[in-house]
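Report of the visiting student (M.T.), summer placement. My assignment was to run the structure pipeline on a short list of targets and document each run. The first record concerns UDENN domain-containing protein.
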Amino acid sequence: MEPQGRDEGKGPVLHIVVVGFHHKKGCQVEFSYPPLMPDEGHDSNLLPEEWKYLPFLALPDGAHNYQEDTVYFHLPPLSGDTKCVYGVSCYRQIEAKALKVRQADVTRETVQKSVCVLSRVPLYGLLQAKLQLITHAYFEEKDFSQISILKELYDHMNSSLRGSALDGSQVYLGMSPRDLILHFRHKALIIFKLILLEKKVRIQTLISRLIERVCCDIRAGMIEHGLVDSSHYRPKSSFVSVSVTDIDSSALDLGVETAQPATESSGNSSEGDNHHLKPPSRISPESSESEWETLDPSVLDEGGPQEAPSETEPELPETFDSKPGTPITVQPQAVTGQGGVTQGLVSGLEEDQYGLPLAIFTKGYLCLPYMALQQHHLLSDVTVRGFVAGATNILFRQQRHLSDAIVEVEEARIQIQDPELRKMLSLTTADLRFADYLVKHVTENRDDVFLDGTGWEGGDEWIRAQFTLYLHSLLSSALQQDSERLLADYGAPFVTAWKITHNYRVWYSNKHPGMTAVTPGHPFQGQYSVADVKLRLSHSVQNSERGKKIGNAMMTTSRSVVQTGKAVGQSVGGALTSAKTAMSTWFSTLAQPAPASTSACPEPATAVKP
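After the run finished, the structure tokens were exported:
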């Protein structure tokens, strides 16, 4: 299949696909435009090997429980391409008897189908808004052979979205971090730290779209530029583990070294030597994490690493002294016309002047907004460093040991079995102040239902700005010489674990000019107060197991007291009412005059004269 992602002249939409549920074959592709397989027709059920899970992603588990809903998902790139494919699927069901044209394979009372868009750009909410309207119109036809409306959708989307820049409000349309803060409250910061540590996070939910908000909403530039390498997996374990020792300097005549102390390097290279990406001498599926941490995205392609673009300057002037122990001596150059976004020399992502987005979803760390049951092998795949994946199937609950953390959305609960990881994610006092600051501003600005979420403070953009400030301050503190005191407010165990992650090493291995203007230190650092003690106590009661038990016992006791009080009140009230009624009756009886006797009274005796 042709490498569609490399042709920038084409529109952002790759395919319009209809997936249906067959009573014998299960989920299958019924229509695709343009055809998924070039040599097949629009109604072909055949799929590229890389997209064999597409039917199960577009029509998720439990879809029969909803009249209609939407799900987001990611597909791996096809051969010859290097970028993630973003999917948005709107699924509905209709009664079979309502169809004008009922095909022979319709044997059930209801018909389930989904219409999905496969795009090369992550415009989730924008695509969803357009797709919902077309899906509704497609079902209103009550004749699924009428596919002209789907072809018109493909042409309309590509004409209207062609040349759309991945900046501005259209990227975040339909994604509200306010919902995340309102639902998880202080725990939203714990989820944020979990992903920074690149842990295996499974989000169990009935609302699959919420995973996208959790993963991407609150991190600067993550949706626009940080997900291009987030779905590099294969249906079978076919990754080639490649250890990269150096970076090709054919275009940049600069010495490069990683921030991690070199161990078992390929040799003591002198300054000015030309290095290049190359596979290790032995290939093993049991690759160590350190091998992934220096892996370049281009080595995942069949053709091997690619050389730097020819328009890159052959030499860059030194902007600072190269001293032992200093990070990579590479200064990102400003790119005019792109808002200061430049290609990361190590991460391969489009970065701003602060080095964001961090290279989290790269090198085998997956972001899967929805994971089908057929993809369960990814949980234990040795080629997958970690993942943030949303799941709806209850069978995933039996695989708790394959995840570092499980986020249960409906209960707003985070389950972490490892005590060391729980210690790393324990929020410091400064963290609690930051989280409480967010929660208060979000909850206190909800009085006007017409203006809810439209203001600055407590709004979506405001929340993203706060998390960006938090991340900038964390990164700036890590660069200081006496960083231990500054980083203590973020949690020493967390910082120690974060500094050995892939995303930190990639970020630290380069110079970022924007960081010079960032003030180091936690945004909410400061002396302790009585309010901090109350905040800590409240957080402990709400999140610790013992606190939950105490809280539940208090709720049960208070509920019992209330119920007992009501029962006693009703009994006493009933007794008083009866007594009052009896007393009223007795007093009314006394107040009535004595009734006249109807019996004959004897005459009084008279004296008889003698």
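Residues 1-8, 237-339, 597-602, 606-610 have pLDDT under 50 and may be disordered. The CA atoms of residues 225 and 317 lie 27 Å apart. I thank the supervising group for their guidance throughout the placement.
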